[in-house]
## 1
Amino acid sequence: MSTVAVTQAEMEQPWVQPSKGRVAMFCLIIAESAIFTIFVVAYVYNIGKSLYGPTPQQVLEVPIFNSICLLSSSLTIWLAERAIERNQVKNFGLWWAVTFILGAIFLVGTGVEWHKLIYEDGLTISTNLFGTTFYSLVGLHASHVIIGLCMLMVVLLFTITGHVREEHAERIQVLALYWHFVDAVWIVVFTVVYILGR
Amino acid sequence: MADSTYPIPGAVEAPSRRWSQAAVLEWLNSWVTTVDHKKLGILYIVYAIFFLLVGGAEAIAIRIQLIQPNMHFLSPQVFNRIFTMHGTTMVFLFGMTYIFGFANYLIPLMIGARDMAFPRLNALSFWLTFFGGILLYYSFIGGGGLYGAGNAPDVMWWAYAPLTERAFSPGHAPDYWALSLIVTGFGTIGASINVISTAFCMRCKGMTLMRLPLLVWVMTVASGLALITITPLTAAQVMLLIDRYLGGHFFDTQAGGSAMIWAHFFWIFGHPEVYVLVLPAFAIANEVIPVFSRKAMFGYPAVVASSVAIAFVSLGVWAHHMFTIGMTSVGNAFFVLSTELVGIPTAIKIFNWLATMWGGKIRFATPMLFCTAFVIQFLLAGLTGIILSIAPWNWQLHNSYFVIAHFHYILVGAIAFCIFGGIYYWYPKVTGRMLSEKLGKWHFWLFVIGFHITFDVMHIPGILGMPRSIYTYEADRGWGTLNMIVSIGGIIQAIAVLIFAWNLISSYFKGKIAGNDPWDAWTLEWSTPSPPPVYNFATDPVVTSRRPLWDLKHPDDPDWHYE
Ligand code: HEM
Ligand SMILES: [Cu+2]
């Protein structure tokens, strides 16, 4: 009989499960990590294997300002998350916009860097092995930044038109998770390309 | 009994089987636009069976070509292409889709949910997979050789670089191969995310993780593995396309690139992939064997743990496909040992199935016949795997027909057998009608006999040195008779599959009415009518043990007493 009582008590407990948005985003991040791992391995494996120049030492400049912008955007998006949790929509919009701008600066910076590499140094994806691996890995990351910026932009538009409220906090946090991931990947890419690779 | 606890809204109409033109369009529309997990599950299964037939036809073409020395049925070119299409079709279009067919249809029903976690993502994933398949076969358009096969990809399913680079493979065949698999790969990622989110977040009240039906557990593990294995392949294919279209040098040895890195990337995907395919087969056996042995599955936690362990270990053994590439002896030793390690969780699984059957009241209905044959064949195939994973033996047997025999022993002997068993088992739930047991027995016996004729014998030409992927051979090698036998076995299997296809169609119209629970089973899906209504459950079920229907049927002796 005691077992019945236990089961009865168990029945009355609230039934909570993890949020499906978060679980799904974690899964996506795991899948994406696998993709990045393969590209990073291909980069590391091929460091110094180019048979002819230009070499990374000759042409790469360490993008310090860019990286500071991107990494601090993780902080601002976190502030935005906190704000929407507490239903401070104005603050949320502000931090969200700052995040977007920081991300955009990063992307522009990458564009400037690539412009210099292509037109001044003559390094394209087909020039040599370094060009192939460099543009693939950095480009893969940049394309993730672009996707992230698109999503940030959509939320920003919703915020400006007054459609974002406290109840959307969860979805926004799921999106922010993606942005944190993109930032974290940059730390790896930065280390591999601009520190190990030079 | 079941009905009184989980009441159903109104009576479900008996499935109508009459057609008019408007009704057909309506019907078509309802399938194309559906987001219902049951319909998408059926679409996946139909898609998988369709490509099983296509891939099977290609296999028969290969076997006709090899039936005796110096055959001229296929030209060498077309042979390579058919060979590639066979492997690619079977692994990606049949193997990767049957998983999500079963998962989609069954998981929500088994965990007492109304749908998958993301119904629209679910539909998107299916249609991505669908268009990926179309894209692969679109390469046939353009004519040339055996009904257009002269334009199909000819890179084999492992597509070794640098043979797939522009210089060696001009034209578009490798692009079809890479692009279509990238598209189906995205479908797979979406579907896997959906399966995992559903299993963790949509369970009905009382369905703790330790009460999840084993099918759900194992499908979830397989989906997780699919997430981290299909993505490296996608990455490698993107690199291949960069090389082919943007003039990149990843695999271009002339510019310092490496061909070996392709082999690594491919097998980092390729080895775990075989477990992505086989785990869902285990999942099916885990449901069928207990019900037909009238015993609860032996060692539930061990089944879960060994599935997770298999998934983990399989990520670290890929280079056993590369012993002949010339690794260091430390490398060889590592990959030999890590491969042997897979034997431990695999053996645990076999003991679980045997212990479940041991002392049970076994009913050999068709689903159980297939699953019993599976256990035996899986054991044998594991043994040939151990042989192959010993490096010196591998140097002898690599790229011979012994390898082909090994993996078909598993891919057909385990995966296909479990799928057949699973379809016989759940067909009544899906259609409301039973499959014919008589045709089922014919299907089973012909298939087992054909299977053993083909794949038992196939080991021998491999040991005698017959290489894989050759389009024909000289008469003086002594392989002729053996190949003749192998081909005859293949044709017997094909006949069995045709009987099965006929059974699927004819039973849909004339099969015995099934009722809710024809097998006297224990999981939640059998508490719904057959076929289940759109929202599955009128009131959300509440469960108290691993076998909710057992508890309902035996209130005097419920399972939760023992948990
Ligand atoms: C105890 C378990 C297993 C061991 C030790 C094992 C070992 C091996 C080894 C060493 C090879 C490489 C042979 C060569 O190319 O020289 C191989 C090939 C293969 N195995 Fe297994 N295997 C096992 C289970 C499986 C399972 C469960 C599957 C499928 C579900 C499978 C499918 C394959 C396939 C498809 C290939 C050939 C790939 C190709 O070259 O095209 N194996 N196995
Ligand atoms: Cu393997």
## 2
Amino acid sequence: MSEMLPRDGAPPLDEYVPSQARVLETRELAPGIRHFILEFVDPGLNKAFSFCSGQFLQVSLLGIGEAPISICSPPTKSDTFELCVREAGNLTRALHRLRPGDTLWVRGPYGQGFPLAEMAGRDLVFVGGGIGLAPLRSAIDCAVCLNEEFGELTVLYGARNPENLLFTDEYDSWRQQGRVEVIVDEAPPEWQGRTGMITALFDVVELKPANTSVLICGPPVMFSFVLGRLKELGFEDKDIFISLERHMRCGVGKCEHCVVESFYTCRQGPVLSIDQIRGISSALR
Amino acid sequence: MNSRESENQEIPGLAGVQAIPELLAWLRGISARQRLYIPADKGGNRIFEEFGLSDGPVLNQLQERTVLPVKKLFLPPSEILFDFSHEVIRPPAEPEDIVVFGLHVCELSADSLLTANMANDRPDFPYLSRRDRGLTIGVTCQRSPGCFCEKTGHDHVSPGSFDLFLDLGEPGRPRLLAGSDAGRELAAAAPFVLEEAAQEITAPPASNPERWPLESLPERIHDSFGAVMWDELAARCLGCGNCTIVCPLCYCFYTRDETELDPAMGRRLRLWDSCQLLAFARVAGGHNFREARSERIWYRFSHKFMRTQQTFGAPGCSGCGACFHFCPVGIDPRQVIAGVLEVTKKSYEE
């Protein structure tokens, strides 16, 4: 195994040292969820930074800690990048206190995103639940921007209640390129839209399984229902892509936290096709 | 350390040929130039300790395993990834050159595999920069109680896996074998004739040399998921994580920020973690992907005999037996693998 010892090789770059980024804008999207528009403090890095929809960054505040967060802006937007952060612990609580001009630290991008290039010429269906819309928004905006590359776009989105719906001010622009259907679990009487399970949305859209790729991100509890419905409709496992939630700590396949049987979610995921994870009993819980 | 007692010890395989004082003098010479770690006695246990700090290196007990493997020197239980002060990040001090004496064959093999893992895909800089400054001197072991490297295939190492190797295999004929240029330099004042390590070094044969069917183990471990045997193990296991701490091939970690009284100053630390602990697979919001202890035990074995085997062609278990030796309830990997082979027997023998 001596050939694997990197003694004579060039020193590798230190993955674990983050780069500083500055908050340009931030707003509350929904209760407990904030949206950030950021740029790297180092202009060179800002120019060089590139990623794919579905990839994530390790975001940190010095002295508090680090957590994986998906990029929610499209790769087609080159001068800034955006994050959507749900308040869930110490770090995210502190991130929520940041205001324009403040800085945070990021490293990445990490993981495999949605293989949009391989989906060229096909219809795309985005199925999002809750904050799962954040990484999908990156892919939706990318597909909208490159709309001639794809067939029809359909966004199916469900949230707990109307006030939890994310990016509501953007649906109209998505509708110019495709269809957006929204549903909530529960709603006050004045809610004009649909209520129920996200699977109900498959009854109001017409999909062509043979030439459609599906991109899913949401809470694990949503997966089995959505996958069951897609199977009924005749979708093949190879055409369904899902973003798995795990706690990626290192992002580079070393710390072992995000492993699902033989997959490092951080390296081979978080986006995997159902084909790839077939037979892995613990992948979709 | 210079006590008469330590100088009068006899080293199995070396007795009557070379005096201990000469070996000690060589090691002392090395330690005068760089940090040298060597198995030492700590309350009846062996630990790798800096030469000169302990009462005496236990040269006559080199066959006994140390409590913590050599990984503790290259992947320390706690290390600084970087310091920060008012939004300025500073890298930690450059690692020091070190020499470690007394690694067994299985540990040299594990060290190579751990290094390959850390170098794979996206290289782990903190580990590799430290490992790159480490020299290893292997020594023939006499086999520690409960070890089983013959079952895992980690019972031999290539010359590229060590810098020097003190071969005590043939009683009365010690050989010092060189595996690298750095090793040759280190051997300059050694009281042994230096030879080139031409071929693989093998551990002393075991009484029960039956190798596990490593090729088929990935699939068999996979198929054993959910089997009752894992529940039975979970009923015994205390979930303490000891097995992962003493394992030369376990390297799970987490990071934590530590601050001064002024919270703008501090450091990001990397610390050993254990997949056997309940919180290991918990995500934001509280959902735990491996709530059941039986699943966590299965994951440990699947990492070693499925994932590592598939990626590197060798299992992530050196066969040193430390996990068994230091397990408070005596969970023995030999019995676990025997269990896996048993529950998957039907499908593999048809």
